Amino acid sequence: MKLHLDDAELVACVGCGLCLPHCPTYRVTGEEIASPRGRIAAMRAIVDERAPLNASFVAAMDACIQCRACEAACPSGVQFGHLMEDTRAALAPQRSRRRRAVEWVGYRALLPNRRVLGFATRATAIGQRLRLVPKRFGLPPLPLRAPETLTADAAPDAYLFTGCVMDAWQRDTHRAALRVMRATNARVGLPDAGADCCGALHVHAGRYDDAVRLAGRVISAFPGDAPIVVDSAGCGAALLDYGRLLDTEAARQFSARVVDFSTWLVSRQLTLTPSDTVVVVQDPCHLRHVQHAHEPVAAGLRAGYDVRTTADDGLCCGAGGAYSAFQPELSEAVRARKVAAIRAAAGGVATFVVASANPGCAMHLAAAGLDVRHPAELLEARLGND
Q: What CATH superfamily is the domain 7-94?
């Protein structure tokens, strides 16, 4: 098996090491192979046939959270995310039968099928009530009944992307986002059938064929040219990358319509009732490092809260989509550093709330005992009786 990587992206790394302090796995382990520079060097060795593609190489690639903080710090503009995605695509067929079976269930049977995901959600909810689901999984309390249906406005000024897991497990966040958007006098539409999953987790796992298929369905579910507002940082990053993934003009035009929820609110009028509640903003990696759209979150919340930010340059929380399930020890070690940074930002207050614009981050941090809310929920709580 060979790696098929973009030569220009591969040689762009000059080995300066400025990425090292920003890499969560390097900070935890201190090992060169756990850094972006070390992983790229290993990729080069495989491509140049100077080293075998063995279990050690696979382990090093799997240990990457794909937070892409290294890209923001890199003076050479190395597209490490693309290199890692392409590497995992090459490794996918070589996974163990057990790993491939687990991925098939998650990526093919559950995520793209709303009914199947809904059934699995209710079954898991029953397991939670019977205390059969370990708390270390970090799952929020799941609903026993199907959540109330969201309603769309006619002739929308903007759409709200709903996705898969977030729609099944955190639909109240979507409902809050809809209420906040409508408080700005916007008419908000919902996608047609087919937008059940954006394919973000599939891309991270190297399942490009599945991701391309899902992307085509998503594009068809949003007719017209109205903005597509996304309240999940990971989904937003994936939708913005459809142009590269599909390499079609239709995909590029679609991606040009995608905008993060808080960024969309910047140009709208929203009146909030102020409070003295302390809110610490956690910047999801794919909002800060990929979309570069993290600042509007804190800015939007300041009218209603005492907002504080962490001093760790957006260090990853360790969630990484499915990463916490496949790499629990590394994930928890990275999360411990993030929790410490969040508590430091809170300044010693007894009670505070963490604002996170990504469902995976929210669940992962909540499992560590933090009170985590989506910015849309926090904004909705300060709307008053509108």
A: Alpha-helical ferredoxin (1.10.1060.10)
